[in-house]
Amino acid sequence: MVKNENCVLKYKKDLCSEINIIANFIVVLKYLIYYCQIKNKEAILPNLRLKSQKFTNYMMQFKAIAILLIVILFSFKQSTAQNDAKIKFGAISMPDAQMKIYPMDSTAEAVVLVDKGDIRFDYDVNGERGFLIIAEYHTRLKILKKSALDRATIKIPYFDIGGGKSEYIVNFEGMTFNEENGQLSRTAVQKSNIFEEKITTNYYNKKITFPNVKEGSIIEYKYQLVSSMKVIDKPRTWYFQGNIPFKRSELNISIPNIFYYKLMMGGYLPLAENINGREITDMGVNSLHDIPSTTYHFVVKDAPAFRNEAYITTSEDYISKIAFELSSIMLPNEPVQNFTESWEHIDKTLLENENFCLRLKHTNFIKDVIPLISLKKDTLEKVKFAYQFINSQFEWNGEKGIYCNELKKVYENKKGTATDLNMLYIALLRAVDIDANPVILSTRSHGRIEKEHALLDRFNYTVAHIQMNGQEWLVDVTNPYNKLGVLPEDCLNGIGRLISRKKSRFVTISPLEKYQEMRMFDVSIKDNKINGKYNYLGGGYVASNFREKLKEVGQDKFIANIKKELSEWDISNVLFEEIENVDENIKMSYLFSSEQENSEADIIYFNPMLLDSKVDTNPFKSLRREYPVDFAKPVEVSFYLNLTIPPGYVVAEVPKNISVSLPNNEGKFTYISSISDGKLQVTSKINIKKIFYLSEEYDKLRQFYDKIVEKHSEQVVLKKK
Length: 721
Hints:
By secondary structure, this protein is α+β, with helices and mostly antiparallel strands. Helices cover 23% and strands 36% of the residues. The N and C termini lie far apart (95 Å).
């Protein structure tokens, strides 16, 4: 029950907190009485045939259990009260106020000392908002460095659609604390510090700027966010971790047993506390008095700052959090409302959805193209022709999402979303009797799909699945620089769901190409000057990225960028080959020269990893890593140097040959140098076959790259005879 007066909400919460233990005990008491009854039917009144001694034994057992339960319940209440006292608003400890550096992360610019959420459900008996989710948030944050001063401005997002379909923020309280000469000063947030910010038509931010914030300040705030379940049917995802350390993150939620949610834990941090319980909830409606509720208490302590390290998908796949999905609503005397999705239900929904598969039924507008495709001899040629037709005639507008616009309009406008264009491609193939169907997936930037949770909103992209000559192909037509069957790198995210009237199922999404590049140098040294020719070959994802960038900026600017990045070298005669032919590797060549400033007359120091060929930084800097490494595709990088030894010089020092392998031959690095016929040859090869490494495999991978960085930094020394 929710009234307009905020004090009623607070009174009700406090009252429920005090009586819950009594209510819980009464419930347990009832179960115990029932237990004693069924243990011996003779004990049920008024049938009094139970022997006196037997009855006494049962009652003694009952009494002992009841006393034990009272002790446990009141102990739990006392424990909860102690936890609440520890994080009372405004109770700033002097050690926190005087903290200069966070002991667990000396680099942190700020630290969240407390982040607490208390979530419950209620009903708006006096209004039109229906069931409500009431979330009380409490945050305390320490500013350690000047770079964190912008964290003193917070934004609280909320929806306001009107007509009872809204969220609103109440009981906001904010304070800035500063330690001065052993004393704690307080500066409260005033109305003048609070602003409303419109983001979209129905989406707003409440923006609060805390006063008197400086290096060393603590800001603390709390508020209630009241959400109508007409617009938000689940609590917001709770994050135990952020881009700065969290000392303590706590979530408490009480869910009445008329709402059933899937609780989905994510991330790699352990829970310090994980307690489930029971309590009684009164929503103020006749049929919703004394509703049993399930309570959850989660705590994570000393969470490190989450940092976007190399080779991950999106932070949402790794950061520690808990998300909620509504499964069902079971109101008294009403049919159960099921929201739980199964994969079969999702399949059926999409097959019958007018904005998805049903779009493929209305394709008369493509009849002029069909004869052109039909002229091709075999299935592969038809598939290629349709692919090239879409790539050459249509433009992707950059938008994702799994639902499809009217294909006739897409065809007329020559532009559409990724799903629009791929569904149009499927329509073309179906028109010439090729088995083609949509596959929905989630891009790497959107997050992984978990088979355990059938959730349609986890998908944000559609590609085409083609059954051809006994093989399965996955095709995306949004990028004209990719070969047929090469998906965008952002689509390489494990699995997708094939939607087909024959049989829908999961399909594995594997990279068809590698990250592949080859660098070849022919070099000579004369008069302390390096001269050479550079040949570059890019394949797979390197080639498509190269072509896309070249097309985007044009050749002149592309060449200018090369010269800018390699400013210590003179670059000339830049040539490109196979720019348009996506089935071939891209090629580039140019001449280069540079003075050797670090060389003496009799000694020449020379790093053979010329231009930008050197791996000079290990992408895996951290000694430990909690989450996996995901390369998305295999890596194959080759380097070849052919140096003509200048007349009158000999090779005095050369890097030693080395071969380093990852376990199970999952990757290999070789560095080989040799001298023959007055020439020095140096070869470096990096080959990574396995694309996914667990955290326990991380150390081997880090050491592998350490060896590459070390070897690529070594020099050749030439001396005069």
